[in-house]
Specification:
Layout: E1 2-4, H1 10-21, H2 23-26, E2 37-38, H3 44-52, E3 56-63, E4 66-75, E5 80-87, H4 96-110, E6 115-121, H5 125-133, E7 137-144, E8 152-153, E9 160-167
Parallel strand pairs: 5-6
Antiparallel strand pairs: 1-3, 2-8, 3-4, 4-5, 6-9, 7-9
């Protein structure tokens, strides 16, 4: 079941997101960033601030009262920004991510927005291919990757974001 996350979900979301992106647990799935980044992906404080902003929605995919997937949707003037698409590593390739993407399309349409944008680390070719199979295209735009105490690159290749876009309707 896909519903909007609330502040009561922050702790569970934080554990899910960090387990899917970084560290040993993330290596069970194919979307891990553990080979290119150290540190954590997010914090409870960041997630709380995100949910407190009315322009942001985090959709959660719940099964047996456990959050197994989520996606951040940010309403902008002309588009919906999609980020932090997460599926529990042991459940990747089960259709959860696809269902969350479909719900993002519905959310964008409900807001009267006709396109969705996202950023993906440009060296994550398998993930970029997955998004392209779901209607996203490379816009050609690139953005610098933010380095901080949270995002610690360990890759020999300099990191940058590729901007992907999906037009709706």
């Amino acid at each position: 079941m896909i519903t909007k996350a609330t502040l009561g979900d922050v702790s569970q979301l934080n554990k899910l997101i960090n387990s899917a992106y970084r560290g040993e647990s993330s290596k069970k799935g194919w979307t891990t960033e553990a080979n290119i980044l150290e540190g954590i992906r997010t914090t409870e404080e960041e997630l709380t601030k995100t949910l407190e902003n009315a322009k942001n929605t985090i959709l959660k995919f719940t099964e047996n009262s456990r959050i197994i997937g989520c996606v951040l949707l940010v309403a902008k003037e002309q588009e919906l920004y999609l980020g932090m698409l997460t599926v529990s590593p042991e459940l990747q390739n089960s259709g959860v991510g696809k269902k969350l993407l479909q719900q993002a399309d519905i959310h964008a349409s409900a807001l009267g927005l006709t396109r969705i944008i996202m950023t993906v680390i440009s060296i994550r070719e398998e993930l970029i291919s997955w998004y392209k199979r779901h209607g996203y295209v490379d816009t050609g735009a690139r953005e610098p990757f933010p380095v901080s105490e949270v995002h610690i690159p360990i890759s020999e290749t300099p990191l940058e974001f590729m901007v992907l876009e999906k037009k709706l309707g």
